[in-house]
């Protein structure tokens, strides 16, 4: 499977390291320091430095070829923009989005291109 992860922080790097052996994984990260850290920590993945909300960066990552996009940045607004662009402009079949602020849960739905929304706070509260 072809997987594009936007956000190379703790969550993004963990997901990339778990998927890289069985899938083609590309990570987009805007922070130069995180890009360098990813290159050291997670081998055998493509890493693109740039803003995942920018259509030309998504094109550079061949988003139209992706089967899954995971918007895992630390910013809910960015994750919604990434989800919207992935689903509606690039026809990605499956889009995951991280919810950072549980008060924003109501936004993370099919109208914004989110197939599956994940919030650790909401999961813990429901347990």
Strand order of the largest sheet: 3-2-1-4-5-6
Strand content: 15-25%
The count of strands amounts to: 6
Structural class: alpha/beta
The mean pLDDT is 96
The shape is globular
Unreliable sequence segments: none
What's the end-to-end separation, in Å?
31 Å
Proportion of residues in helical segments = 25-40%
* Helix-strand string: EHEHEHEHEEH
Measured on Cα atoms, how large is the radius of gyration? 14 Å
Largest sheet: 6 strands, parallel
Determine the number of helices (DSSP H or I, runs of at least 4 residues).
Answer: 5
Compact overview of the structure:
With 127 residues, the chain is α/β, with parallel strands linked by helices.
Question: Can you describe what's shown?
Answer:
The chain has 127 residues and is an alpha/beta fold. The protein is built from five helices and six strands. Strands 3-2-1-4-5-6 form a six-stranded parallel β-sheet, with helices on both faces. Strand 4, helix 4 and strand 5 form a beta-alpha-beta unit. The radius of gyration is 14 Å and the shape is globular.
């Amino acid at each position: 499977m072809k997987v594009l992860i936007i956000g190379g922080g703790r969550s993004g790097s963990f997901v990339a390291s778990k998927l890289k052996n069985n899938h083609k994984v590309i990570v987009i990260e805007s922070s130069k320091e995180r890009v360098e850290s990813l290159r050291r920590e997670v081998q055998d993945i493509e890493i693109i430095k740039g803003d995942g909300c920018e259509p030309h960066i998504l094109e550079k990552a061949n988003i139209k070829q992706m089967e899954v996009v995971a918007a895992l940045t630390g910013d809910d607004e960015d994750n919604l923009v990434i989800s919207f662009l992935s689903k509606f402009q690039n026809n990605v079949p499956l889009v995951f989005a991280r919810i950072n602020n549980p008060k924003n849960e109501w936004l993370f739905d099919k109208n914004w291109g989110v197939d599956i929304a994940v919030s650790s706070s909401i999961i813990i509260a429901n347990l």
